[in-house]
Amino acid sequence: MSWFRRLWHRLRSITRRQFAFGVLALVLGFAVLMGILYTWDYTNSPQFCGTTCHTMPPEYDAWQRSPHARISCVECHIGRDFITTTFTRKAGDLMHVIRYSSGQFTFPLYATTMRPASESCEKCHWPEKFSADRVDYIKHFTPDQKNTEVDTLLVMHIGGGTKQQGLGGGIHWHIENKVQFIATDDLKQNIPWIQVTDSTGKVTTYIDVANPLTPDQIAKADKHTMDCIDCHNRVSHTFLSPNQAIDQALSLKQIDASIPYIDQQAVAVLSAPYKSFADADAAIGALDTYYAQNYADYYKSHAAAIQSAIAFLKTTYQALVFPTQDLSWTTHPDNLGHKDWPGCFRCHDGKHFTADKTQAIPLECNLCHTLPVVSTPGGPAPVVSMDQGNEPASHKTTTWIAEHRTAFDATCQQCHDTNNAGGKDNSSFCSNSACHGANWKFAGLNAPALASVYPPPVPPKANPSVTPPQIPHPIGGSPDCQICHGPNSKVRPFPADHIGRTNAMCLGCHKPSIPPASTTHAPGATPAPPSGGPPLIPHDLAGRTECLGCHGSNVPGVPQIPQFHKDYGFTNNNCLTCHKPAPTTSSSTAAQPTATVQPTATSQPAATAEPTVSSQSPVTPTISAPPATAAPAAGGPPQIPADHAGRTTCTACHAQGLAGAPKLPADHAGRTDEMCKACHQGP
Predict the structure, then answer these.
(1) How far apart are alpha carbons 417 and 397 in whole angstroms?
(2) pTM surpassing 0.85?
């Protein structure tokens, strides 16, 4: 009680002036505290980081469109921690202000002091949580006139979980197991040394055989422990490539896919270098003139769609390239995937081996996802095989992909459709365009050092007592075997020990098992090809030298060459190597009619005729007219009359049959003037 009495007497002794001063001090102190708290909160806001303090419009713009758009910058760059710890970290970042104010920095900017994932990502994401497989349906548009959509279906094995639960596989295996690596560049794109410690404590070290480090370099280098950011490094600041941006725009119908070649043209203008946005806008705006000149008919009725596409491309370019910061989609690597950047191939490139050269970090497609399935317009619905079945032992080795390039034989057909093996027409398991239709430039399968560690198998020497394999198709004329069987062919290249051998030598050992066609057919009938052989030519070849003019130009009613002929670049010179004219039961020769004139008293010989006087009839001479133009060979196209010399626009008259000109047959619809002259010979 005495304490309260003393306090009461002390309060009663305070004057009004002292009381007023105390209240004012309290208010000012509270205001200062609120100001400090507000300043702390504001300087931690994304708006301050992206627009006020740092020169980071690109990063801020990308962050607003990212999956982390509701996560503050400081939660990743400073981390979630006690206020005193975060305050100290932020105070250390004052050096950025000093460098910016004094100009001691260069563009583009890179984050070099990111917090470990355990202090940032793992505050929200639970690393031990198992994630089920995820279906990715990737839409891509090809740079052809119709901007054809090609869809790729993948099932991503996200995985994760712990080994104790029987899990821990998939992509998130890298979190369950301790992975350390040495990078020789600041962006961690070149990784020559990796060490893995699995859940049992076993340590395995892998070294890039094409770029090994010395023991001294390994001892002195910083060893980084792999975490989420090493793969998800662009998760909050993603910059799309021009191809990705246009694929996305066409998929979302932000650009009209009916505009001819818009995929090709849009990617080209977005990929070109420009000094300023004004130059970029001018180049993109020139697309209006391009379509007005080259696609006038389409432009007349679709000018609005083209203008809309141009406006969209101008906006898109400003989200891909930032000239002021020297930053673009080319400056910051994206470690997810392995196409535009090394990504997964930094380690899984097929050339990181153990010291004894017996094991490699697998370059195995289905470790992280199923084999891609490509769906094309009008084709069958994609089917993804989740279970690989009873894989042979060869498929389970860590060097299987390297082996796969040379271990192609008849045993593959027991499980796979091997039609057009190595092709990219999606006609079979072995002609998957998602595998063979891309240039995997970051994979290390072509590294010379890999060939020294894992040399390709040496084919056994030929046994002279064994009959060479027979040719499984008919042969005619002067075949060029090396079109399909040359060393660089994708059809069925000959062995390495055959290099230098000529076509004549091929037929010296290998004999056709199917003879050429010897049967005849009625004139006008379509001959059937011999079993297993290429189709016969059902028409006369007189004047028809440009086979692809009809058979490779989508002319209605004319059989077109298959896709693999286009993939291999077959030309007109290759056609007659395999396709031979069918024999006929009868043939006719060109007639040479001769007109004779019997002059009378009133008739006069033609001015151009040379009279020939017969010794048998001196009174009545016979005057022969000049020979008529030779008729075309049976089955051949008619010749162009002599009086048509200089007429180059055939279809102007013959398409509609003007002025009595012969009208084009129905099956000639769509043929051009050049195609006319390719078949119909004349002046």
Answers:
(1) 22
(2) no
* Phi and psi torsions of 282, nearest 5°: -65, -40
Residue 615 CB contacts under 8 Å (≥ 6 apart), including other chains = none
Burial environment of residue 187 by CB neighbours within 10 A (0 to 12, 13 to 18, 19 or more): middle
C-alpha 273/C-alpha 294 separation (Å) is: 24
Among 434, 229, 242, residue whose Cα is nearest residue 335: 229
Is the same domain home to 229 and 372? yes
| Domain around 108 | 18-123
For residue range 492-523, what is the model confidence (pLDDT) as tens digits? 788 877 877 777 778 778 888 776 554 445 55
Contact (CB, 8 A) for 248 and 319: no
> From CA 274, how far away is CA 313, in angstroms rounded?
14
Half-sphere exposure of 315 (CA within 13 A, CB side): 10
* Domain annotation covers residue 661: no
Q: Which two tokens stand for residue 441?
A: 């430039």
Alpha carbon distance, N-terminus to C-terminus of the chain:
131
Q: What is the mean pLDDT of residues 15-39?
A: 88
Q: Do 318 and 364 fall within a single domain?
A: no
Regarding beta strands 596-597 and 224-225, do their DSSP bridges make them parallel or antiparallel, or are they unpaired?
unpaired
**pLDDT exceeds cutoff 70 at 646:** no
Q: Can you tell me which residue has the tokens 């793992």?
A: 122
141 and 286 inside one domain:
no
d(CA 95, CA 85): 17
Whether residue 679 lies inside any domain: the answer is: no
Return the structure tokens found at 446. 């072509």
Domain match, 173 and 216 both:
yes
Give CA separation, 640 vs 487, 661, 668, in Å: 44, 12, 16
Same domain, 227 and 247: no
Per-residue pLDDT tens for 255-281? Answer: 999 999 999 999 999 999 998 899 999
Which residue's entry shows tokens 């010179």?
A: 573
Residue 562 gets the label, from left (phi > 0), alpha (psi -120 to 50) or beta, of beta
Q: Does residue 417 form part of some domain?
A: yes
Q: What is the C-alpha separation between 70 and 162, in angstroms, rounded?
A: 29
**Nearest CA to 261 among 304, 309, 308, 301?**
309
Quick check: 141 and 149 in contact, CB under 8 A?
yes
The Cα–Cα gap between 423 and 419 comes to: 9
More confident residue, 401 or 14: 401
CA-to-CA distance for 227 and 121, rounded, in angstroms? 9
Classify residue 169: in a domain, yes or no. yes
